[in-house]
Specification:
By secondary structure, the protein is of the alpha/beta class. It has 17 helices and 28 strands.
């Protein structure tokens, strides 16, 4: 009987615990404002620590702590050795704790400016932000920066925690002055609730229990406010959206589409649509881990089966047919840059939105945002931790909702295509519409018909290498040989296009990216006309050469690496450019003060240090003939 009573007690306890609401929160602020200490105090005072954790905390406090014999609560969160040695937070640390009324997941984020990207990561899933301010210092730059990012990422509830109030003798005047300053600053940030609380995380004043030293403060303790604040936004009231993560085909008799419902409710018999294709069907089953259900709500992982066989793949969206998301390929967006290498307009990146990954680029930087003053600043590139409003262009249309409407449908990350590192994160604001009177014109003649008439396979021969390597010389010889063979060609040379098409561009990294983008689009037109186009450009960045390759169909891009060591190219110096670069008269010169990224797998690798130009030209002709570009009846 006692066993049954115990079992029922624990079952009831677990059921009550599962039904508690969950609050995701973030602590942020400047360096050494006490963020980690506050979280450690919450973990300690809510009594979720085991005895071995407490023993380890006491040992670590003696070894790493800086508050004498007292327990250093920040060590519960600052897990990295570098953090413990420096007394700062570098990584984003997530911790779970619970009270009788609510469950919490808290992210402790860095205060240093160089780790602003980590703070943005933590804020992206939070419902509430605790902005800490050292009572001795008042508002600092990072206070403004983190508050702005929290607002930008959709956090609408803020606790202004004026910490270390004990170090100003629990001064009500100091507290009120900081609160007034912050309210004046935050008026334009759109927070729905702002609760100021004076506290001492180290001592525990006003964290869990009211402090007898703060009798002048009539507001709640921190934990009382966290337990009672209403932050739940009704995702179920939004239209149904589910990004497809996986097409589930365990056997020939079952085909379902698995994913997590991002917003809204889906029921059996509902009409859903794939917005990018316009294909519709009705929901015939909603399958979960626990079996079939009649409906699924936001946050629930399900597999949907449909009444009709329609083409759906990973990355597609299933949506309510009565309230469809928008579909577009150009957008205005906010972006936070997270890489040491600056953002370059025109450079091709991977953009991941939900389960969809597409190629695209930042086509224009509208302005950078000064997060201290909110001033809009003109910028040609965006550096690490900077925030900007940009225009995006994707290679294909996607279904989306603005971030402000449905976070999951408007948030994206930016991925470098070569390193596969995440280099940025952003939020779609709205779609950019092309002029309604511009449409693709259907043409009767195709590329295949044009190339057959010319008895050749169109291709872009992309000559890349250092200045002075001999690219233009070799390309010119190849074109003359092709002309003698009766082939139709055109040569695009780096110097020549800068007299016309690209005369407005300089030699900064940003301008070089745009230079190659324009040339790649021009080469694509020549290839579409059926020509063999020879492109002779230093094109120092591998990402831009990859962009040019991807602009063409497979087999239409042949990379020709004209390889010479720097000292050989500099020794030739036919135009005197290296001499000027060494003298500081030319900035951003490849090989001197701007890098050249060597091709990893070029189709043709020419050793221009030891081979003669005529022999290298013949090597290219031989490659074209052997791979069918010159037609079957090309003369020798």
């Amino acid at each position: 009987m006692d066993a049954n009573v115990d079992a029922k007690f624990y079952a009831d306890y677990l059921e009550r615990h599962e039904k508690k609401s969950l609050l995701r929160l973030i602590t942020c602020g400047s360096v050494d404002d006490g963020k980690s200490t506050l979280i450690g105090r919450l973990l300690y005072d809510t009594k979720i620590l085991f005895e071995d954790q407490l023993a380890a905390l006491k040992r670590d406090s003696t070894k790493y702590g800086n508050i004498g014999d007292d327990i250093d609560f920040s060590l519960l969160v600052d897990g990295l050795d570098a953090e413990r040695e420096q007394g700062i937070t570098i990584d984003v640390a997530y911790r779970f704790f619970a009270t009788a009324n609510r469950k919490f997941i808290v992210a402790d984020t860095p205060g240093h400016i160089q780790y602003t990207r980590n703070m943005a990561t933590g804020a992206s899933t939070a419902d509430l932000a605790i902005i800490l301010i050292d009572a001795r210092k008042g508002m600092l730059t990072q206070t403004r920066r983190h508050s702005f990012i929290a607002s930008l990422l959709g956090i609408r509830h803020v606790v202004l925690a004026v910490n270390k109030i004990d170090l100003v003798d629990y001064s009500e005047l100091a507290f009120e002055r900081i609160v007034a300053d912050y309210r004046s600053f935050a008026d334009t940030l759109g927070f729905e609730t702002l609760q100021p609380i004076p506290l001492s995380a180290r001592i525990g004043d006003q964290v869990i229990e009211p402090s007898p030293r703060l009798l002048w403060f009539k507001g709640p303790t921190l934990i009382d406010h966290l337990e009672s604040v209403t932050v739940e936004h009704d995702r179920e009231a939004s239209p149904f959206r589910m990004p497809v993560q996986w097409v589930n085909r365990p056997n020939l008799d079952f085909r379902g589409f698995s994913g997590t419902v991002a917003s809204g409710i889906v029921r059996l018999g509902d009409c859903v649509i794939v917005p990018t294709s316009g294909k519709k069907s009705t929901v015939s089953r909603i399958v979960t881990f626990d079996g079939d259900v009649g409906k699924a709500v936001a946050g629930q992982a399900v597999t949907l089966t449909l009444a009709d066989e329609i083409d759906i793949s990973r990355g597609d969206i299933l949506a309510d047919n009565r309230a469809r998301p928008e579909v577009a390929d150009q957008f205005a967006a906010h972006i936070i840059w997270m890489a040491d290498e600056p953002l370059m307009p025109g450079r091709t990146y991977l953009f991941k939105i939900g389960t969809k990954t597409v190629l695209g680029s930042i086509s224009e930087i509208k302005y950078q945002i000064n997060v201290d003053s909110f001033e809009h600043v003109a910028a040609k590139r965006i550096e690490l931790n900077e925030i900007a409003v940009v225009n995006l262009t994707f290679r294909e249309p996607i279904a989306f909702d603005p971030y402000a409407a449905i976070h999951e449908m408007g948030a994206f990350i930016v991925i470098d295509r070569l390193s596969h590192l995440t280099v940025g994160a952003g939020m779609i604001d709205f779609a950019l519409r092309r002029a309604h009177n511009i449409h693709w014109q259907t043409l009767d003649l195709t590329k295949k018909q044009r190339s057959e008439a010319l008895s050749q396979q169109p291709v872009a021969l992309w000559f890349t290498g250092l200045s002075g390597a001999g690219k233009s010389t070799i390309a010119n010889l190849v074109e003359k040989r092709l002309f003698a063979l009766g082939k139709f060609t055109y040569l695009l040379d780096g110097d020549n296009v800068r007299h016309g098409l690209n005369r407005d561009l300089g030699f900064t990294e940003t301008d070089r990216v745009e230079n190659i983008r324009r040339v790649a689009e021009t080469a694509k037109l020549f290839v579409d006309a059926g020509l063999i186009v020879l492109c002779s450009f230093i094109s120092p960045f591998s990402s831009e050469r990859q962009m040019a390759r991807e602009a063409l169909e497979p087999g239409e891009f042949v990379e020709v690496f004209v390889d010479v060591p720097l000292h050989v190219a500099e020794g030739r110096d036919p135009k005197g450019l290296y001499k000027k670069a060494r003298a500081g008269q030319i900035a951003n010169f490849t090989g001197i003060d701007s890098p050249y990224e060597v091709p990893s797998r070029p189709e043709i690798h020419l050793r221009a240090e030891i081979e003669q130009p005529e022999a290298m030209a013949e090597e290219i002709i031989r490659y074209l003939r052997e791979n069918g570009y010159l037609g079957h009846d090309a003369p020798n």
